[in-house]
């Protein structure tokens, strides 16, 4: 097997057809066809089911593609590490960051990191652990920083807590309930829920129930921080969001924290990576900068 075989089979899987894979890799379609045929002959089994509109991996093909992705990621990482150990500043670092990680960590570490590795390509993927888990396991993402999943992480991964966190009720500036001091005063309001957990509406219901209040009225489910911020800033909807939202300069002009007396717990912010994944110097430095910023924030209370 050659690395070109792995690249071709992954491209066909991701692009959905041999023609699209050839266009994506800028090679002749005949080269893709030859690679797939050689692999299937060597393995003694079909890797794709061909049909009029393209190609779909077989069960064996799915397993092979997953392994091929892992191999290509390791090859890319090995090449980057050799260059960086030799004193070079090129390569690629892929990190998954939640909204809180974007707001708390990235502004303080980005410029120092860029000064150290000005020519390293940073690939920042916004998301939460459940949507990024498969990419972390495959090595496509070096590590993830954000709230942990509500379930235990897989045994193939390690988890390191960076700092604890809290949440606040968030409203637009000028909201008629912006000066409320208890959840009871918000019982008639309508809410935006997030997608941090599998059943985000349960978070609000459990919180209200714990204080002897009826279930809140849920009006919108946000699958991104941008949706949540826009929904709150341009309507009378309320949200329970990480405390950092109202501290962020790009957002603070539009929303305020409602000063309720109840404590609103939030999951901690953690760093998750795959066991046995040896980070390149550039990736390790990014993680180390994130630890330093988190430690400074923790010391500041």
From TrEMBL:
Organism domain of life: Bacteria
Domain (HTH lysR-type): residue spans on this chain: 1-58
Signal peptide, first to last residue: none
Gene Ontology CC terms, in alphabetical order: cytosol
Record key words, sorted: DNA-binding, Transcription, Transcription regulation
Gene Ontology terms, MF aspect: DNA binding; DNA-binding transcription factor activity
InterPro entries noted in UniProt: HTH-type_LysR_regulators, LysR_HTH_N, LysR_subst-bd, WH-like_DNA-bd_sf, WH_DNA-bd_sf
Family, per entry: Belongs to the LysR transcriptional regulatory family.
Listed name of the protein: LysR family transcriptional regulator
Organism of this sequence: Fertoeibacter niger
């Amino acid at each position: 097997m050659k690395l070109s075989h792995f690249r071709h089979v992954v491209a066909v899987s991701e692009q959905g057809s041999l023609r699209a894979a050839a266009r994506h890799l800028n090679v002749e379609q005949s080269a893709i066809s030859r690679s797939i045929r050689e692999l299937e002959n060597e393995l003694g089994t079909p890797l794709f089911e061909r049909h009029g509109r393209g190609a779909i991996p077989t069960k064996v093909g799915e397993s092979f593609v997953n392994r091929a992705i892992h191999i290509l990621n390791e090859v890319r990482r090995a090449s980057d590490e050799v260059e960086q150990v030799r004193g070079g500043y090129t390569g690629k670092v892929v990190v998954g960051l939640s909204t809180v990680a974007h707001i708390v960590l990235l502004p303080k570490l980005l410029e120092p990191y860029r000064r150290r590795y000005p020519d390293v390509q940073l690939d920042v993927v916004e998301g939460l652990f459940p949507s990024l888990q498969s990419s972390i396991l495959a090595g496509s993402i070096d590590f993830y920083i954000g709230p942990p999943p509500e379930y235990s992480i897989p045994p193939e991964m390690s988890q390191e807590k960076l700092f604890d966190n809290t949440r606040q009720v968030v409203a637009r500036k000028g909201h008629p309930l912006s000066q409320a001091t208890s959840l009871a005063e918000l019982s008639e309001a309508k809410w935006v829920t997030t997608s941090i957990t599998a059943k985000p509406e349960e978070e609000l219901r459990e919180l209200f129930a714990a204080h002897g209040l009826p279930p809140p009225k849920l009006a919108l489910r946000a699958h991104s921080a941008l949706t949540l911020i826009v929904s709150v800033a341009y309507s009378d909807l309320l949200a329970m969001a990480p405390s950092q939202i109202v501290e962020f300069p790009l957002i603070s002009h539009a929303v305020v924290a409602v000063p309720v007396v109840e404590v609103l717990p939030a999951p901690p912010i953690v760093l998750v990576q795959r066991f046995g994944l040896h980070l390149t110097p550039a990736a390790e430095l990014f993680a180390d900068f994130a630890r330093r910023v988190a430690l400074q924030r923790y010391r500041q209370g």
